[in-house]
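step=predict obj=Esterase n=389
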Amino acid sequence: MSPGYLSSVLVLSACTACALWPARRSGVFGTGVYLVGMTYNALPVLAFTLGVASTSLAMARADLSRIGGLLTVLLPLPALVGLGLVLLRATRGIHVPGAAMAQVLGPGWRAGIDSRLGTGLRTRVPLARVLLMPFLRRRGDVERIGNIAYAGGGRRHRLDLYRSRQRRTGCPVFVHFHGGRFVSGAKNRESLPLLYRLASRGWLCISANYRLYPQARFPDYVVDAKRVVAWAREHGHEYGADPAVLFVAGNSVGGYLATFVALTENHPAYQPGFTRTDTSVTGAVGLYGYYGRTEADVADSSPQAHLHAAAPPALLLHGDRDSVVPVQWAREFAAAWTDVSEQPLVYTELPGAQHSFDYFDSLRGRLAVDQIEAFTAWVRSHRDRPAWS
C-alpha cells in the first residue's frame, strides 16, 4: 500500500466524519472542520465516486493475496459506508418541505396557488442532475447587473440585480441578504441557485451588501437592509419591477436581517432620513438564520423582540445538524412567531442538513429553492386576504 493512497483514505475518512458528526468549534480549525463537513455533507456522491476511483486504482496495483492488498480494500470501507449514510439522510428530506407546507397551509395548499403562478413550479427533484452536477450555480438566461449604489457608503452600500434576459415588466421583487456573522460575507457568493432560478422565472432579484463590524453595529446593518427595500420601492420600476410585491430573504445573519425588516415595517427608529418610505414586505424567508440578539444588553436587537400579530407570512428553513446556529434556536423562534402572528409561518427542518446547505445546487439546495418558490407563489395568491384560516 502506497503512502499516497493511505493518506487519501485517511483524509476521506476524516472529512466523512466531519459530515456525519458536525461539532461546534471556534477558531481557524473550527472553521476548517465546518467547511469540510459542509462540503462533504452537500456532495456525498462526488466524494464517494472519488473514493471508489482511488481505491480501484490502488487495487489494480496491489497483491490482494497479501495483508497489504486486503487492507487496500478494507480501509476505505468505513468512509464509503459513511458517505452512503450522508446521502441517505439527504434523501430522507425529499418530502419534508411538502409536508411542512401541508401542515400549516392545509393538505390542498397547491390547489390554492393561482394557476398563473403555479405554472412551472417544480414538484420533483432531478436527482441525477443535483447529485452529479451541483456546481452549476448560474444560468445563461439570466442577466446580472452588478454594483449598483443604494446609498453613499462605498462598496458596502452596493447591490446586484438579477433579471431575465427577456427584460420582463411587472416583476415581483426578491431581496436577499448574505450571511457572515456581521463581520464578513459578500453579495455575490451565497444562494446563487435561488437567485438565478427566481430571476429566470420572472422575478427581479436583489442581493445586497451592508456595513459590517467593527465599522457598523446594531442597528446600522438593519438600517442598511431597510435602505435596500427603500431603493427597490423607489427604483425597482426602472428595471421592470412591481415593487408592490416584495419578499425579503437571507441566510444565517442575512436571515436575521430579513426577519427584522419584515417585523419592523416603517419603524422610524430604523429608517433615519427615509421615514416616509414604505418598507413593508409581502413575506420573509430565513435560511438557517440566526434570530437572537446582536447586542447582549439591547433587548430590541433581536427579531423576536418585534414579533406582532400583523407580522407577514414567513418561511424558515433549518438543518437539524447545523453546527453554526443550533436548530433549537430556530425551533424556538418559529414557535414564538406562530404563537403571535395571524399570518402563516412555515417551519421546515431538513434532516441531516448542515449550515449553508443551499450553497451548491445540491439535493437540499434544490429542495429549499423549490419550496421558496412554491411558498412565495402561495403567498402572492392569498395576499389580498386580511388573515389566513
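step=describe
The first strand starts at residue 142 and ends at 149.
step=end
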